[in-house]
UniProtKB/TrEMBL annotation:
InterPro entries: DedA_domain, VTT_dom
TM region(s), chain numbering: 23-45, 57-76, 109-127, 139-162, 174-193
Organism: Geothermobacter hydrogeniphilus
Residues in VTT domain copies: 38-156
Domain of life of the organism encoding this protein: Bacteria
Record key words, sorted: Membrane, Transmembrane, Transmembrane helix
GO CC annotation, single: plasma membrane
Pfam families listed in its UniProt record: VTT_dom
Protein name: Cytochrome B
Amino acid sequence: MKLFRNLYDWILHWADTPYGQPALFMLALVEASCFPVPPDILLIALSLSRPRRSFRFAAICLVGSTIGGILGYWLGVGAWDLLSRFFYEYIPGFTPEIFTRVQNLFSEYGFWAVFTAGFTPIPYKIFTIGAGVFQINFLVFVFASILSRGARFFLVGALIRHYGEPVKVFIDRYFNLLSILFVILLVGGFFAVKRFFH
C-alpha cells in the first residue's frame, strides 16, 4: 500500500507543474494501444487537485485516448503480423483465442463491442487493435470510442467537480481500501476477458 500511496502523492503533485496535463495525455494515448495501466488514476489525481478544471482534464484524457485508439487501430491494420508475437507474450489479455472471440463480437455487435470496451474495465487496447486487424469500419470505431471514453472520463470529471473536497477526503481516508479495489478492477478486467472470451 505504501507504493500506491507514494504513487498517488507523486501523481497528485503534477497538477502544480507544467507536466501534469502532458503526462495525462500521453498516459491516455499509450494505454489505448499498449500500456496496461488505465489513465483514470492520473485523471482523478489531477482533478482532485483542481476540481474546477476536471472537465478540462477529462477532455485531455479523451483526446489522448481517442488518438491512442486510432493508433492501435492502424497498428492492427498495418503491423499486426510484425507485432502479434510481442503482444501475445508481453501484454496481458492478448491470446489468439481471445482475438478469435473479439472477431466474433465485432461481427455480432460492432459499435457496441467497442463502446463496452471503452467504458468498462475490459482492456480497451484489445479492441482498438482488434478493430484494425478485423477491418471494422473506421468511422464507426472512432465514433464508438469517442462516446464511450468520453462518457467514462467526463463522468469521473463531473463527480469530482461536483463533490470536490469531500471526494478528496474520502480517498485520503480510505486510500488503502480503494487501492486494493483499483487493483481488483484492473486484474478483474483481464480475467473477464479471459473468462468471457473463451
